[in-house]
Write a structure and sequence with these properties.
The complex is a heterodimer of chains A (115) and B (115).
Chain A (H helix, E strand, L loop, with lengths): L3 E3 L3 E4 L5 E7 L5 E8 L3 E8 L6 E2 L7 E6 L2 E6 L8 E8 L10 E2 L3 E5 L1
Parallel strand pairs in A: 2-11
Antiparallel strand pairs in A: 1-3, 3-8, 4-5, 4-9, 5-6, 7-8, 9-10, 9-11
Chain B lengths: L2 E3 L4 E5 L4 E3 L2 E3 L4 E8 L6 E6 L5 E3 L5 E5 L4 E6 L8 E9 L8 E2 L3 E6 L1
Parallel strand pairs in B: 2-12
Antiparallel strand pairs in B: 1-4, 3-9, 5-6, 5-10, 7-8, 8-9, 10-11, 10-12
Classes of the chains: A mainly beta (115), B mainly beta (115).
């Protein structure tokens, strides 16, 4: 089974802190994604990476950056956390290409609270 | 650009009754379609997917969905629900181009099973 793990289930940070959210997958997937989930808004794509050291902005990249130094690890960085970044963050991974490979596998999520 | 509309934010249903969760999408290209389920305090789990072929797709836990191209719909159904089906359900699309773009999600439907 594909396994996507996220470093923390719950995290509390203060405004202005630098925050790192880590995601690791164990199935050698090329593509990795970061979403945030907010009530009434569903999931929105922040950033994605189609391979090591490659990254692309999603729909809501402002206030975030990412790092993909190794294939299995995709980090989301909040350079200076703000209260409007309080949310559930979900990481996902997927094999590259179309067809059957299009399924994304999700981690359990990190619930971040910024005070 | 793609978009997904889940018309109902909440659907209350009595146990053992049938249920239909509605999903409509818009896209200028051919798409793949997915339904994910999120149980309380968990990540997303794939229920079923439509990639090609038969328009009636069967998934896990007794769920099925029908792809209707003319109505651009992908409604989710279950003939008899159980208390354990209480969860948030998300419809999602991705284009068939095989690019690394993330999924576009609807805002979710909270299925509430009443005893």
């Amino acid at each position: 089974d594909v396994k996507v793990t996220q470093s923390s289930r719950y995290l509390v940070k203060r405004t202005g802190e630098k925050v790192f959210l880590e995601c690791v997958q164990d199935m050698d997937h090329e593509n990795m994604f970061w979403y945030r989930q907010d009530p009434g808004l569903g999931l929105r794509l922040i950033y994605f990476s189609y391979d090591v050291k490659m990254k692309e902005k999603g729909d809501i990249p402002e206030g975030y950056s990412v790092s993909r130094e190794k294939k299995e690890r995709f980090s989301l960085i909040l350079e200076s956390a703000s209260t409007n970044q309080t949310s559930m963050y979900l990481c996902a991974s997927r094999l590259a290409g179309a067809g059957e490979n299009n399924e994304q596998f999700f981690g359990p999520g990190t619930r971040l609270t910024v005070l | 650009a793609q978009s997904v509309t889940q018309l109902d934010s909440q659907v209350p249903v009595f146990e053992e009754a049938p249920v239909e969760l509605r999903c409509n999408y818009s896209s200028s290209v051919s798409v793949y379609l997915f339904w994910y389920v999120q149980y309380p305090n968990q990540g997303l789990q794939l229920l079923l997917k439509y990639l090609s072929g038969s328009t009636l797709v069967k998934g896990i836990n007794g769920f099925e969905a029908e792809f209707n191209k003319s109505q651009t719909s992908f409604h989710l159904r279950k003939p008899s629900v159980h208390i354990s089906d209480t969860a948030e359900y998300f419809c999602a699309v991705s284009d068939r181009g095989g690019g690394a773009d993330g999924l576009t999600f609807g805002k979710g439907t909270h299925l509430i099973i009443q005893p």
